[in-house]
Model the fold of this input.
Amino acid sequence: GQNIDQPTEMTATEGAIVQINCTYQTSGFNGLFWYQQHAGEAPTFLSYNVLDGLEEKGRFSSFLSRSKGYSYLLLKELQMKDSASYLCAYSASKIIFGSGTRLSIRP
Amino acid sequence: GAVVSQHPSRVICKSGTSVKIECRSLDFQATTMFWYRQFPKKSLMLMATSNEGSKATYEQGVEKDKFLINHASLTLSTLTVTSAHPEDSSFYICSAREPTSGNEQFFGPGTRLTVL
Done:
């Protein structure tokens, strides 16, 4: 089966840190994507984790635990422009997206 | 990164007409392209996988006679919404796998379809 879950909405403060969790269950798995999507626009690539562990890329980091079917996206030093939806997606024979997490940043 | 374009970006049509959306990989050849549909404030729903030179693979619940997909070349896939109805109004996004980038998919900018 194919199942992927993430929180629907989150709110955080400018300058703070926020962690967006994603859990998945799938019989086939190659890796885990994180995408950012602003309203009315197509998704843009943030990260792709294949191996367990944390990968850091500037203010954004992504973590994967294959054995637990768990990933998170960590955003540091939040800026107002980070207000967007964040989509996790796992890659098998095709990419399956979660429902997305709408992140709102308050001043 | 690789670039994927879509045309048109916006289209408004009357109910009962057909609309064709093009998806092009601009600087690479894509043997596989994907078509997604997204409703407001919802995530992307995979509609079908478009394979160059062969029939598309449709996801469960997606009518293949309603959403015609043609992948005639390594850089172009088209999605035709036939006999469109207001419930077909949505944001349609294509993506393509760039062969040297592993499993990463590159997304087009999307096409917003409004059926009156």
Notes: Chain A touches chain B through 20 residues (CB under 8 Å). The radius of gyration of chain A is 13 Å. Chain A has a mean pLDDT of 93. The CA atoms of residues 34 and 88 of chain A lie 5 Å apart.
